[in-house]
Amino acid sequence: MPVRLRKLIGGIVLIALVVGWALLAMALAQLPVIKANAVVEAIYYVLAGLGWLLLAMPLVKWMVLDKRADPK
């Protein structure tokens, strides 16, 4: 698969990932367990804000992978 096509597909998937993650994070933020304590709420927002990166990093790596330019 050409790199340009992978980047197009990856870009669309990244946008869907960010939107889906934000909606899920907003829904979970309304749980009484999280809303009850300000410290727990702050920790949740930090983890939710950085959590999508764990899913995005392998996707970005796949997007830029060029099998033709194998360094071996």
Give a verbal description of the structure.
The chain has helices at residues 3-29, 32-35, 38-64. With 72 residues, it is mainly alpha-helical. α1 packs antiparallel against α3 (38-64). The longest helix has 27 residues, at 3-29. It is elongated, with a radius of gyration of 17 Å.
Furnish the topology, listing elements before pairings:
Blueprint: H1 3-29, H2 32-35, H3 38-64
Question: What key attributes describe this structure?
Answer:
single chain, about 70 residues, mainly alpha, 3 helices, elongated
Short note summarizing the structure:
The protein is mostly helical and about 70 residues long.
Q: Helical amount among residues, as a percent range?
A: over 70%
Q: N-to-C SSE series?
A: HHH
Structural class: mainly alpha
How many distinct helices?
Answer: 3
Provide the gyration radius in Å. 17 Å
